[in-house]
Amino acid sequence: MADQKLKDALYGKTMQLRLADNNEYTFREPCIDELESLKFDASDPKGIKKLVWTLVKNDNPGLTQEKLGKIVTFSMLQEGSELLDTIQTLLGTKQADDESKND
Fold first, then answer.
1. Buried-exposed string 17-33: b where 16+ CB fall within 10 A, e elsewhere
2. What is the number of structural domains in the chain?
3. What element of type H or E holds 26?
4. With contact defined as beta carbons under 8 Å apart, do 47 and 63 qualify?
5. Which structural domain, as residue segments, surrounds residue 80?
6. Residue 76 CB neighbours (<10 A)
7. Which stretches of the chain are DSSP H helices?
8. What pLDDT is attached to residue 96?
9. 18 by DSSP, 3-state: which?
10. Rounded to a whole number, what is the largest CA-CA distance in the chain?
11. 3-state secondary structure of 27
12. What pTM does this model have?
């Protein structure tokens, strides 16, 4: 467990999520530089796509923005979806389920 905490501190938290193509992708907490350069509107699908791309691009070789746009479905953008829960957890706006159990 200490190794995971060290990795999280050095590289950011990661979470696995299955998208519409039925493959699992690694989502990584963004660094401050990525957030600073990311200008998006959370109510606009293009903005959400930019944010999701920021979270997946470094850990998923072979994944392109074009392919990402085809494997994130409309239902994944609905409030309470696993995708939005993952995004909120990585951005620190929602506590991960396993973290809340440890409190």
1. bebeeeeebebbbbeee
2. 1
3. strand 24-28
4. no
5. 2-96
6. 17
7. 2-11, 32-37, 45-56, 65-71, 82-90, 97-102
8. 67
9. strand
10. 40
11. strand
12. 0.80
The two tokens of residue 90 are: 């990585």
How far CA 47 is from CA of 6, 50, 54, 84, 102, in Å, comes to: 31, 5, 11, 13, 33
Residue 14 carries which side chain, given as an amino acid letter?
A: T
Better pLDDT: 83 or 7:
83
How high does pLDDT run on average in the chain? 85
16 three-class SS: strand
Place of tokens 């950011």: 12
Assess if residue 103 is contained within a domain.
no
Residue 59 domain-assigned?
yes
Tens digit of each residue's pLDDT (9 = 90 or more) over 50-77: 999 999 999 999 999 999 999 999 899 8
Asked if residue 101 is part of any domain, the answer here is: no
Does residue 31 fall inside a structural domain?
A: yes
